[in-house]
């Protein structure tokens, strides 16, 4: 067979999706599988989205503006004002999901061969976007024992070399659930400013902070040139399939470059963008009950986890995720075993193994995250309680069957 | 200001979109501007698309499958069977427009620094996708005087070096309207097979062949390993804003690699994909009246052009475009002048200047296409006749004002 490129061959399998065939097999055997592997909210998408689809009456589904439609960008600017982020419609480029916003941010900040500093563990697809842009991710490790908060400045500065062009942070964090403090964000801002780096901030879980406040990269004073915000409606409005995100920056050159990149793929999806315009007008009150619901889910998951002997994790303050260290040597095998070999009362649990959330390529260290799993608490609380009960029993059974 | 990357800075402005501000100014002066610059069909999107939006009743707009939904891929396979292309749902990856399909094809075929051979003039955004993938496009020139058909094999083989990994062809062609013959497609297939290259074929205008038959890369025997088809609903169903395309290949490794790339951006837009499923079932009869309409438009445009002294172009057989040589030295200036300085009875014409359809970067030759413009005949026939009349008068006036 004609050989495909090395870069497409080493492209990482998604740790979130690669166990799906085993889950399908378990379900085919009549088992209940609690899907804690993927951050797919079960919350209904707000009615204005569906109403906008029903009311859609354009005769021609035509190309839209590459940077997104003016009314939608204005609605986004208003939404951001509600988050104490002062930006104008002209600072925003609408993208095909947060995914494309990250891709554009990487392309704007780096040349081929450059590096972006990122805190490990991190959202698995950052590895994929880095490969697509021919850059390396330079990881700085954060630890379960400290709630995955930042290491001291020295550790961060030590990882920055001449080819480093940006720092990428995600807050609230996927996969750890960590909300970086105002002090931590300021520290990153100071380093970025001092060393002339872009500070790219992935804030798609902004609304899901259960304690304290969220600090956006756009809140940092004096960082107008360095700050690039990456965002999406996927989690905010439970509209993952809409593939509507945005890139926001006050740096005129960076915004102009992002628009040029956007022109190459013509425009974001027209219909879904118009439906998102309807949702953007929902206002901040919409999120309060959602946040309460996810806080209950977080509590149930975390409390359940804490009942399992040997688990290490601090209570995460945001997003939908808990990254936990289990008393299991190899969570890749364990996660597969949960689907192929284990059930309790005909039920089992699907989790995302830790290693997929660590750097690939140039700075890869084999074996990282092997004793970790990511749990997405996107099910109703009773189901999460049941899932944690099963996980505890499964850990016992697995350790009995695989003594170290 | 913090500097953006060189690669994002050299990103080409779209020749199709960059004159928009001047057109807006002309319209603000009360002028009628005939937009022949962009291939945005005025044909209404078929009813099943809009009906599907109204009937959409999912509660959660959830992530879909990265490779596209099974029912839609099956509907596409049936559509292809109607084009005498035998492929299965498993040969197809649904993409975010044809744009992403080209990007995936480049990534699957090449490493950074590799080359793709492409026939010049070509669709302007190929330059952008090449930049994004850190590869070079190696152009092989085709000429207005020969209807932009292929040069002899020797000229093609001479442009293939050790870093060449693929040949990219577009048929029916954007920007030239040329439909490559079965013999031409077979010649490309033989070269690809002989030298172990992918043959990537962009066939988004398949339905718009006004004489003769369309030869798809998927029709070529023995080329299963080499052939990658790039496609889109944009032109076929006048649904440019839907951003739904696909990549089709029988090469298992290439398909698997494209699915891995697709996983990184999670899924194509869910709602628009479901609306496209409804359209995919329209059948081949749908296209006959459309083709007749565009043939009339082609005829009106070509006949009008032929009345302008000094114009060189052969009658194009497909797509929505005519690439014509005008008796004007610099069509960049002429295209701008049409909008800023010229009108006839308060009307003028917007065209896409030729140079944007030639290679940028490593193999760039300055001044190529300067005496050419691309005309998109996507307006009703009377408007096209009026536009050609104006263009002829404008050429006269411009040459009188700018004697060479």
TrEMBL record, chains A, B:
PANTHER family (alphabetical): ASPARTATE AMINOTRANSFERASE (PTHR46383)
Q: Which species is this record about?
A: Mesoterricola sediminis
Residue intervals of the Aminotransferase class I/classII large domain = 34-343
Q: Which domain of life is it from?
A: Bacteria
Q: Which InterPro entries match?
A: Aminotransferase_I/II_large, AspAT/PAT-like, NHTrfase_class1_PyrdxlP-BS, PyrdxlP-dep_Trfase, PyrdxlP-dep_Trfase_major, PyrdxlP-dep_Trfase_small
Q: Which cofactor does it need?
A: pyridoxal 5'-phosphate
Q: Name one GO molecular function term.
A: pyridoxal phosphate binding
Q: Which protein is depicted?
A: Aminotransferase
């Amino acid at each position: 067979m004609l050989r495909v490129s090395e870069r497409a061959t080493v492209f990482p399998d998604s740790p979130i999706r690669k166990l799906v065939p085993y889950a399908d097999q378990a379900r085919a055997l009549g088992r209940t599988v609690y899907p804690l592997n993927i951050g797919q909210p079960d919350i209904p998408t707000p009615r204005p989205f569906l109403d906008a689809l029903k009311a859609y009456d354009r005769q021609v589904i035509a190309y839209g503006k590459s940077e997104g439609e003016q009314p939608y960008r204005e609605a986004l600017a208003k939404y951001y004002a509600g988050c104490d982020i002062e930006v104008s419609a002209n600072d925003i480029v609408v993208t095909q999901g947060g995914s494309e916003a990250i891709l554009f941010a990487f392309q704007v900040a780096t040349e081929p061969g450059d590096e972006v500093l990122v805190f490990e563990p991190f959202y698995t697809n950052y590895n994929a976007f880095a490969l697509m842009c021919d850059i390396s991710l330079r990881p700085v490790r954060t630890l379960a024992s400290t709630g995955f908060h930042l290491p001291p400045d020295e550790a961060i500065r030590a990882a920055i070399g001449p080819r480093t062009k940006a720092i990428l942070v995600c807050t609230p964090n996927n996969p750890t659930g960590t909300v970086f403090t105002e002090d931590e964000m300021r520290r990153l801002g100071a380093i970025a400013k001092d060393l002339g780096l872009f500070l790219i901030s992935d804030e798609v879980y902004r609304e899901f902070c259960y304690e304290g406040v969220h600090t956006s990269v756009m809140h940092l004073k004096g960082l107008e040139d360095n700050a690039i915000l990456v965002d999406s409606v996927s989690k905010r409005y439970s509209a993952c399939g809409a593939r509507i995100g945005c890139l926001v920056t006050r740096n005129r050159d960076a915004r102009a470059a992002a628009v040029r990149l956007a022109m190459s793929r013509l425009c974001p999806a027209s219909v879904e963008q118009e439906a998102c315009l309807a949702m953007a007008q929902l206002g901040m009150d919409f999120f309060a009950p959602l946040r309460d619901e996810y806080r209950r889910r977080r509590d149930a998951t975390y409390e359940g986890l804490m009942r399992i002997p040997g688990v290490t994790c601090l209570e995460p303050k945001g997003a939908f995720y808990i990254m936990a260290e289990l008393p299991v040597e190899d969570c890749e095998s364990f996660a597969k075993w949960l689907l192929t070999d284990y059930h309790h009362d005909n039920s089992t649990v699907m989790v995302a193994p830790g290693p997929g959330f660590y750097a690939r390529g140039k700075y890869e260290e084999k074996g990282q995250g092997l004793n970790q799993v990511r749990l997405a608490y996107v099910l109703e609380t009773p189901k999460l309680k049941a899932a944690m009960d099963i996980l505890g029993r499964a850990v016992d059974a697995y350790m009995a069957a695989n003594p170290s």
